[in-house]
Amino acid sequence: MESQKSYNLSFDLFWKRDVSAIRDHVLELWRHYGGPTGNQANERLSQIVYAVRDKDGQVAGLSTAFKVFVKQLGHHLFAVRLMLADQYRIPGLTSQLLVMTRDHLESIHATDTEEKTIGIITVVENARLKHFRNEAVWPASGMVYIGNTPKGHHVRVYYFKGARI
Asked: Averaged over 109-130, what is the pLDDT?
């Protein structure tokens, strides 16, 4: 398998920024991989944190986030989603995208004036990840396994430094 460097990928921050330059590429990625459509897709465009782009500027993957109140934890967290096109599912890229997204959200959470977030939460639906990445704590991202959804998907959380419960 080729290394990530051979792909010449860039990570572009789009959090709270204009996504019009990548809008059509993102919508095509979602259409191809069963992502959101219609109004749901338009809403999710505003949630993009990072876009991973190849040397030609095509969107190879992205991360999105939105605030959610997690009743079981009693706090607001950023719910994070990651998506990579099949040809870019290379070792380490998912972790790198997750860590960059986590770090950016952690860097801005202190500026929240309402609904303070204390970390990030993600649902792992990918069967291969659930089978092969079954450590209680993922070393690269610090994401901790906290249980399963009713559908059997893993739920992982990371608390921001200094978070208070």
From this structure: 85
